[in-house]
Batch of 3 targets.
Target 1
Amino acid sequence: MSSSPLYRRIVRRETHSSRSGIAITLAIVLIVVLAWIGTESVLAAIGQSPLLVAPADAAGAVLGAAGGPVGVLTAIGVVVAIVGVVLIAVSLAPGRRGRRGGASQRTVAVVDDRVIARSLARTASYAGDVDPDQVSVSVGKRSAVIEVTRTSGRSTDLRSIDEAVRDELDAYDYTPALRHKVRLSKKGTVGA
């Protein structure tokens, strides 16, 4: 990969997703809740009837919640804990998109994992002398799994497929690099 800070920043922006969507959603929810509380407070101050719940009634209900049914309190606690865990997980997760950065002499390229999967499937089908529809490839963060479906009456040479896929992956200059695993499907197809 090129050492230019600009190129590194471009690849980082293209291969990692931002968390602005969850932050905006959370901000909108908080704005709506605070606007509702403010509206209810103003209505209570001028002596009007509340929209949903008067602030004094809401505060009394929150303070009296400890005397409520244990099942309801437990359910509310579990929901709040799950929301908290999800928000923490989203904030700490890397937010990686299915893309990889690759370098050439004067530029960088960002390649989608689906393109790599198709290329590996084509290579495996040629090397194993099987129909391209009989090869399934899944590309993860650091690994690619190539699953080949056998054809009845024909032998499938996993070693040649493995070598061809390894040669192709070695030719790539993508970050993060991929390890691969080739396996035969437990199912097979009937040859024509």
Target 2
Amino acid sequence: MLDRILLTTTQQPQLRLAKQLIIWGWTANQVTLLGFLIGLTALPLLAFEQYYFALGVILLNRLLDGLDGTIARLTRISDRGGFLDIVLDFLFYSTIPLGFALANPSENALAAAVLIYSFVGTGSSFLAFAIFAAKRQLSSPVYPHKSFYYLGGLTEATETILVFVLMCLFPTWFSVFAYGFASLCLLSTVLRIYTAWKNFVD
């Protein structure tokens, strides 16, 4: 729900950073890969309970995730880049609850499993809708710059990162945040299924 607000707010700073990276010779795909590799370091940091360092890594990953799309729009949008971006995003999202599970298995493992399960619901409904929207040549009026149909929901990227920030700031409350956000993810999945059922009429 908050993605559009964040995109509008950060558009100009991201544009300036993206232009500088282009001058330095960086491509969108290189920034995507760099962001993902940096994001993966959150796993050992969380496992060893270095929550503030993990928070910094998470925020840096998200900054680079925004920059890669801006660079692509300034240079060339490609299917390869769009595919790489979305796959690595979903892998990164699941890395965070896994890290908390490793940090404290007895307290966090079940909540982490439930949260990752809910990510499967949001991710699969999101991508399945995009597949059939492309088949029907539909375009998103909300996110026309995306390389595929971007269906919004209750739990988009901004909400996910806000929850990750809260988890890192208050790690003893991880289970509460995880179960609460998993509930919202599952509700978002149900709403996306309903949207698809209404739109994809044979």
Target 3
Amino acid sequence: MADNREILPPQYDVNAKWDACIDLTVRRFVYSTLGGAVGGLLLCRSPVTRWAAVAFGAGLGIGSAYTDCSRLFEGSPATAKLASHKIVETPAPQDGQD
């Protein structure tokens, strides 16, 4: 039996975007938390500062994942603002012309 579903363009496939966002968030959270833990073990003596390094790493991971996911869903005001401004190049005057 043939599959009659239409193939959606990538910009409209919300399920794929959510899958990518969840994957990105979990990876960045785990890797940055582990990086914070290693950094805390190497650089800090007190258990409180070690936990602070772990929390800082986790925050960095979640923040960077949030930024990339908002770009993926095109919901970030900063990217919309930057995308709306276009740089127009004007030709430089040649010798003898003013």
